[in-house]
Amino acid sequence: MKKLLLGIVICLLPVLAAACGSEPTPKPTESYLDETSGEYYLDGVTYELDHGAKTAKANGVYSLSITNYWMPDYIKVNGKKYNIVAADPSLFASQDELTTVRLSANMTEIPATMFYECTALTDVTLPEGIKKIGDGAFSGCEALQKIELPKNLESLGAEVFFGCKTLQTIVLPDSVTSLGDCAFYGCQLLNSVTLSKNLKAIPDDCFDECASLASLEIPSGVESIGLEAFWYCTSLKTITLPDSVKTLGARCFYNCEKLTEATLSAGLTQIDKEAFAFCGALKKITAPNALKETLTSMYGALDVELVFK
Known about the structure:
The chain is mostly beta strands. 8% of the residues lie in helices and 24% in strands.
């Protein structure tokens, strides 16, 4: 009976581990210290050691072909523990066979272009401590369909997901206050976007050529929408600007060919003449009285209903 119970427990261990959310730590297949450079080599990646702070930084890739990389939280060198806290920019740039990555839980930033043009990348596990994702960090990751952003994330840089052609869903946690230009430029399959409630601006070219984006709720608190922010969002059907929006950039909804209705914010006092250029399906614009003269001159002779409040 005891042997039977023991066998059942052993069989259940993997199930219990998964239920508790624990993550197995794979054993390194290659690791050694270069006594000359002082760098530590681990499964294709080199680490710079800070002996004073007892920390390590991933600073290079020495393998020509990495497909899966599981970055540990720390490494042990000569019996001493070094927490992995950072990585150099462009660490995995153009590693076109890389598909899966797990990063150290001690990292707080994804540096610029870290995964630039990792065209096969499909699965990234970001630690909850990440507060910043740098410029172009995932630019050109054409196979990346989804990514879960950490709940404490504060800022995303310019072109952070530029050209991620198969990215379909993005949720910006409410901790995010800053978003860079061209953040989602060319995300052709992006169809679901949740913006942070604490975002103050939708920057220039933010959603350029997001051809599958049919709707988007702009949270109250956003004060400006940048130059060509929704350029060629050809599936966008309606847009409602909260009253917090004060400025619209030039050509912000240029060639949104399926856009039928736009509700502009009460706080808007001026609008670029090409803000809705080539929006051939546009039938109704609701706007504040301050824009009556401008919009009447732009659309008065066209088949567009103008409602002023």
